[in-house]
Design a protein that fits this description.
Layout: H1 6-12, H2 15-19, H3 24-48, H4 52-79, H5 87-104, H6 108-137, H7 141-169
Helix pairs in contact: 1-5, 1-6, 3-4, 3-5, 3-6, 4-7, 6-7
Amino acid sequence: MLKYLIFAAVLALPGAALAQAPNDAQIAHIAYTAGAIDIAAADQALTKATNPDVKAFAAEMARDHKAVNDQALALVKKLHVTPQDNATSQALSKAAAAKLTELAKLKGAAYDRAYVENEVAFHKTVNGALETTLIPGAKNAELKALLQTGLKLFQAHQAHAEHLAMTLAK
């Protein structure tokens, strides 16, 4: 289980960066990066997963995270803000690449379980960061509203992943 909690460690790892109160451009980049990471994981799952429920979940993750990222891109364009790369988004990307490599080595039910367990950990971590750092730190009302909408959706994703993980464990 520990190896599936990589994303939990990632947001703790750059904790100093998050503790320095990221600005809206950095928050936008962190949120977009987290969405892109989950899209990449979902795309991998769509090709590797064998369980139909896992494939359906992956399709939902890809669809929903693409929609939120599209809304985020439209918002930063409207606000004339350029998302700003930062230590947190860089650490997230690095850890995600390592996790995708790790998951790629698995097959069948082992892959399905690992992907879903990773989704649980990922959503717990991202939801926690949204609740405690990103939403409270956002200064722009429209960015804050988009993050709040995303949080509600991602909390539903977490619940779905937790339920799926329980069914796969049986």
